[in-house]
Amino acid sequence: MVRRIDMSWRAGLLLAAVLATVGAGTTGTPESEALPGVKLVLPAAAKIKVGWVCPPLDEQQVLDAPWRDLRFAVDASGQPWLAVPGQNLVLNPVGRYRFSLSHRFSDFACLDNGALLFQTDRDLGFVGLTDKPVVQEGQAVLPFQPAVSLPLSGCRLYAGAGDCLYVAGAGPEGNYEVHLLQPESTSGGAKRTLRRFRKIFECPEPIRAVTGDGTLTFVSFGRVIARIGRPGRTKPELIVHPTDDVTDLAWLPDAGLFYATETAVGVATDEGPWDFLGCCGHQIDLRGGTLYVLFTHTLGVLALDNIADVARHRPPATPAGRTQEPPAKVTDLRFYAPEDDRNGKHIYATTFDGAKVRMVSASFRIQPTRRVEQKIRMTIERSYFQKSHRSE
Q1: SS3 readout for 22-62
Q2: pTM exceeds 0.90
């Protein structure tokens, strides 16, 4: 069952007042209007409640703001946070406050215990206590308190469940690494603190996202999600998206594993990935039983409550908005090696010996399933020293 959700372009005056950098006097319409380019597909049996935590702003206003590389996280109380490292700016649109940090930061994360952590060029830390914060240009500047040194330079932060934290980035040996930071008990055993990182995974491809609880970890690179630490498994298990790179991950034991690509948000189960929200320019986070989706082009934050129902009732693994029928089918395939008949015409065969030829031509007859039949001829040149191809 497809439910088309009318995502209102409400004025969003509350959010506009907080995000003054975007500009005052936000104009909007109270009427409900579908958000262009957003398509939501939900299983018929899933009891999902959908609503705005932060209504979307006018897209042009957001585009005109000097913000790049926006970061998104949701704290333990379900309030969204936005950070703009390039502007040294942190915003809580629901709480209606904003501040800068005394040190330049490149990333941030919210833990289950309420901690708000920041990453500088070398350290991981938090906002220090102060009775009288410095005020510059009408904005509070809060002190940064380093807590632990980062194991990698130029890394990214990824909050996990149970107060654990992951960092991922390029390692010294050329591979891309994931390091885990978990709370550890002090000598007395009464207090748990974050002390040191340990490496848990590496691969040759750039890592896009990480989530988990320290025991079970999910890492995305390219179109692959690697599941690490499942009981009884000694090697990572791989979940592969059929078409797109996985750009973001969110997981909780009771809710399931959710991912984002450049064009969709989906759920990954043992049956494979399934896209249920078609959209562009978004980031995701998961708190309790709610999945939060930030639309970066409007700064709207959408909440999908009881999201575990999507994993429970999902259909077979077919990305939302895509058809099971291929757009075309090959009805004939023949190969030609450079030998002509007595009339100079090419002689085609259904097979060829690739070890004995340097050039092979292949004739494909393709029957489009939604268009008039057409014929495409493709020539492939092959040699021991180079490979090339061209279409005619």
Answers
A1: CCCCCCCCCCCCCCCCCEEECCCCCCCEEEEEECCCCHHHH
A2: no
Kindly report, residue by residue over 273-292, the tens digit of the pLDDT.
999 999 999 999 999 999 99
Neighbours of 319 (CB within 10 A): 21
Which of 365, 364, 361 is CA-nearest to residue 340?
Answer: 361
Token code pair at residue 369: 């399933």
- At residue 322, the 3 state secondary structure works out as coil
In DSSP terms, 291 is beta-bridged to: 286, 304
Residue 362 has pLDDT above 70, yes or no: no
Per-residue pLDDT of 317-360, as tens digits, reads 655 444 444 555 566 666 666 566 667 676 667 666 666 666 66
For the segment 252-256, the average pLDDT, to the nearest whole number, is: 95
Query: In terms of pLDDT, which residue wins out, 314 or 30?
Result: 314
Taking a C-beta distance cutoff of 8 angstroms, is the pair 140, 99 a contact? yes
Query: Where do runs of H (alpha helix) occur along 307-370?
Result: 308-313
Assign 67 to helix, strand or coil: coil
CA 270 to each of CA 236, 291, 316: distance values in angstroms, whole numbers, following the listed order: 14, 20, 11
The residue whose two tokens read 């006097």 is: 25
Q: What's the confidence (pLDDT) of residue 378? A: 44
Q: What's the confidence (pLDDT) of residue 330? A: 60
Domain layout of the chain by residue ranges? 13-313, 328-391
Q: Is 270 left (phi over 0), alpha (psi -120 to 50) or beta?
A: alpha
Phi, psi of 335, rounded to the nearest 5 degrees = -115, 150
pLDDT beyond 90 at 391: no
Collapsed DSSP state (helix, strand, coil) of residue 364: strand
Right CATH for 13-313 from 2.120.10.30, 2.60.370.10, 3.40.640.10, 3.30.300.210: 2.120.10.30
* Cα separation, 168 vs 153, whole angstroms: 9
